[in-house]
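User: ok so my PI wants both of these folded by tonight, can you help

Assistant: No problem, let's get them done. Here's the first:
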Amino acid sequence: VAMAVDGGGWLGWINQLRSPNCDLRPTGCVVDLLVIHCISLPRGQYLNGDVEALFLNTLDCTRHPSYGELEGLRVSAHFLIDRQGIATQFVSLADRAWHAGVSGFDGRTACNDFSIGVELEGVDDGLFEPEQYETLHRIVAAVRRFSPAITPERIVGHSDIAPGRKADPGPGFDWERARAVWRTQR
C-alpha cells in the first residue's frame, strides 16, 4: 500500500534527513522522470551510514582510501533504500536533488531539473534485495501520484541518462519484474 505525499513533498512514512544538496526546480518545470541509482560506500559495504553522511556533507573523507575522491562533492538523491528495505528521504519531491550529474533524456539535458532520484544501496554488478524492491514499489506509487507524468516507461536507470559515464543500477536490477508492478499501480 502506498502512502500519500504531504503538501511539502515529503513521504510521512519514510525516515527524513534533510540534505543541503538541493535547490529549487526551474519555474514551471514538470517532473516527468524517475531515475534509479545504486550506491555503496565503500564499494560493496552496506548499512554503515556512510551514504547518508555523503548526502548530508558529513562524510569523513579520511575514513577510507576510496573516499578521497569524494572530498567536496555535494550530491544527494531524493531517496535512499538500504539493503533491509528501509528508506530515507533527503530532499522534498518539490525540490531539485543533485543526483544525476551531466545527463540527458528524451532530447533534454540537466535531468535533475525534471526528475526524482532514488538510490538503492548496492553495486552495479550485484543484485538487490526483495525488501528493496518492495520499498521501491511503494515509493514509485507515491511519487507517481505526486508527479503523474512519470509513467513506467519514464522510470530509468542512471546508465540510461548518463551512458558511458554511469552503469548503475546495473544488469542485476530486475527491470522487467519492476515495470510489471509499476504498470498495475495507481
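One down. Here's the second:
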Amino acid sequence: MVIRQRAIQAEDKQERYNAILDAAERLLLRSPDRVANVSEVADEAGLAKGTVYLYFPGKEELLLALHERNIDAFFNELCVLLERMRPVGIEDVLAVAHEHMIDPPLFLPLAARCLAHMSQSIPAQAATAFGQRLGERLARAGAGLERHFRELPPAGGVALLRHSYALILGLWQLSGAESCAIAAPLRQHAPYNLSYADNVDAALRALWRGAVGSHAAAERSA
C-alpha cells in the first residue's frame, strides 16, 4: 500500500493514522521487549518522521492509541453481541474476551505497558481523554450486560467488566508472562506458580457466576 505523505481528505488522514498504528504493531510483534522510537515507526510505515509527529507527539501517545484501537475491537464486538435479541451467556462473553484480549500476543503486554506509563510518561490531557472515551465504552457495554443478566444491579455491568479486566491482566502478570519486580519473586513459590491458560478461564467463570448466579448463567450458556 502506498501511503500519501500529505493527507488532505478525512479518509486519507484515517488511512495514514491506521498505517502508523499498523507499523508500530508490527514492530512490537517482532520485538516485544522494546518500544520502537518514532523514527523506526516512520520507516516501517513508509512516512517521514515529521509526519508521524503530526499525529502522535511521542511514542507513549502512539502506544496508547494502539492500545485503544485494540480495546475498541473488543468493545465493538461485545456491543454487537449484546445488542442482538437472542440470549447471551457467559461463554459468549468469554469468547469475545479470548478473541480480543487473552489470545492476541500483543494485547496484554501493551496494556501493562500503557498502565505503567499512564501516570508517568503520558501527558495528563491525553490520559484524561483516553479515560473518558473508555468510560463511554464501559457504560454502553455495561448497560448491555444488565439487559441480558438481570441479576446485575445498576452499574453492575460496568463493575463486572472492570473486575474481569483486572483479573485477566493481573493473572497474566503473576503467571510469568510478564517480567516485573513484584511478580518474579512470587513465582518461585508454588501458590503463585500459575499457568495462565489453565487459570484465566476458571477464574473468569467463577467471577461471572458469582455476579449473575450459576443457575442463570448455565441456562444462558446452554
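The radius of gyration is 19 Å. The first helix runs from residue 10 to 30. Good luck tonight!
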